[in-house]
Structure prediction request, 793 residues.
Amino acid sequence: MRALIFLSCIFAFGLRAADLEAYSEFARLDPFGVVIEADRPAGQPLSGPNGVVALRGARGGYVSFRLAARLSKPGPYSVTFAWNTPATNLTAEAFREWFHYTEPKNSYYPDALAPVKLPYRSQLPEPDNRIEKQTVQTFWVDIWIPRDTAPGVYRGEARIEGDGKKVSRRIELQVLPASIPEKEIVAIDHNSYGSEWLSSQYPKLRQRLGEKFFASDEFFGLIHSYHRIFYEHLGVFHQLGYGHGGKVGPEFAPELDGSGRTKRIKSWSLYDRHYGPLLDGSAFAGTRRGAQPIPFVYLPINPEWPASFLWWGEPGYETEFVNVVREMEQHFRDKGWTKTAFEMFFNHKKRYKAFPWDGDETRFPNDNRYFAEYARLLKKAVPPGSQVHFRFRSDSSWMMGQQFKELAGVIDFWVLGGSELSWYKEVPAMLRARGDIVWMYGGTPEVTESSGAITFAPFQTWIWGAEGFVRWLTVSPGADPWFRFGGGDTVLAYSGDRFAIDGPIPSVRLKLQRNCVQDLTLLDSLKTRKPFEELRAGAASRYNSSRYEDWWPPRPAAADLPPYEMTNATIAENSKPVKDLAARVDAQSWEKVRVWILQLAVGGK
Amino acid sequence: MMRAFVTFVLFAACLPAETPSEIARQLDEIGRVATVMVDGDAAKRIVTKRALESFRKVDPKDPWVASDNFDVNHEPYIQVKKTLIRLSKLASFPCDVNLWSPVEGMPGRIQIVIRNVHEMSQFWSWGVLHQDTPPRLKAVLETGKRVTVTDRPDMISVLAPVYDSLGDVVAVAEAVAQEKPNPRENVK
Prediction:
């Protein structure tokens, strides 16, 4: 108890009345001004002995920090930030951090970020967050450094007014000559399922539009806004449009007509409203990254669509499949949608009782023949030399070792379980050399974990030589994320409905992840100056005191078990070395890597 | 013949939503036909012996051991699933026909063995491999009598017995539909 009081004294900032302090993006505070336990390694205020907050960043990227506004007693306050150099093209965006009461820990954690205009005026306790005795409100601040910003030092000032006083905090940002490449080095993918969740997460819009909700421009606008938020955070958004039994959501597939040799596409109406702006890039007009087509999209193909499983093994199945997919290829080609990888991906599992084979995480060797058959059908449907890019994706775990061999030339987009992949050091390079795409998949750290935990997946992806990482579900906040939060392992973008925003709002973890990806992208670009092996080793040692060799532990004997004899326990035991690496990541880990990257970027060692 | 069948289905799909009584009537007809058409011997061969053995496995370190080992014999599965799909096409509205069968060696337990495209059922808890036999299903297994069930709001099921070559009721076909189908439900 004494230790707790001591720590609280150390990490609770400011003893004056109204106060404003800046913290690292990795130091999250609770609504009483205490740095949350998991982030305490990064918990010191950023201001130096002279009271100035010194920041540093490369062009074409973000620099982020946290402002904590404190009042000694309940009352009104305002917070603002302004550059002292009026002509600068730097922009600062502020977000109020929502404190989620998180049941498993009986504590508050900031995560959802509500955009605010500066100056921000409110009162403490914040009326909508309903936290009795709240004394501190924190704000995430993003500074965007355009590519054409002149290198140099830029000065600004953050200010709080409250308790009848004004307190300022000077901010100095050093813009480095280095620029972050435009194309991110790892694709962090944010997965979702269907579209019905939008109606429950946007009850005001749903009520306003009534029965017309799912056919409205607002509905498609909402979907596009989710793509935009992940795109702007250097990520990808995926929406799976069919269920385990093969039912396809109306806006995820063209409408079909007929049966057997007469089966054809009847209408592209909903599909084009949904995907047209995403596939031609117009949905991203006005964003900082510019209007670009989405790089990846699921096709609605499953064992029940476009061919009915009723005809499986009969000529009608092939006819229905080939005719419809051929029409799709033609449509995509006519539209010029040639920059996106269209993924044929099977998500069903036999345990859900709708089909006799596992499309996802295949475990039984007998199921591989279905993949071979679908590859044959796809090849027959798509004209040779088509400019439309079709990929056959498989999310693989138990059987990846066998599938790499047996499905060579069948699967060309692998999304791999990280635990099992740790047994196959040579695989990412081998698959990429034959033209396959290599991603990994997994979950999302809860808010209760260290703020540094969100950086592990991007870093592991990069250091393993993979190209992407799928977070399996990222838009599902739970029944009541605002006042009875479950921890957030399936959400990185929240509904803005509570804040009168018809679209998603970001989270602290999404922004931490974005900043990590931009750092990795800059680091990877430095391999023109420094051997890649040195970059890898240098980053690993600073990240969690690891060596590159630690990331690829010796292949265990269990890796040679038949896949159907493996258990989750076997896998957990035999992938422990990599999990131990994750456990060594704390709230300071990434900052150490970042400091080094920026040093390298300006020619240091 | 096929063209006439397709024409009927397309025509039926364009019809306005049926009344609950009409839905129940058509489902009852499907149930009657299912009793004749679904092969009970094939149904018994669907789940592999190894999968059935795994139902009883409990591993505190691996809560998914039974699900991960669920497997089926493809040939009888596909044969029966195709029959169920054909039966569902007799309805003039979106309809699923599911297959339920008692779990061999686990008295009182039942499993849904085959589901279909709309993923409708009045009895299945999403994701479970097997479950206690609901009284409605138990009654059909014991009596061989077809029944209509409307326990869940907006959903109508007809449960029909499925016989093997010995004349025993070995499974139950659930023909199920919703009064107001939701095109986005279960797209996940």
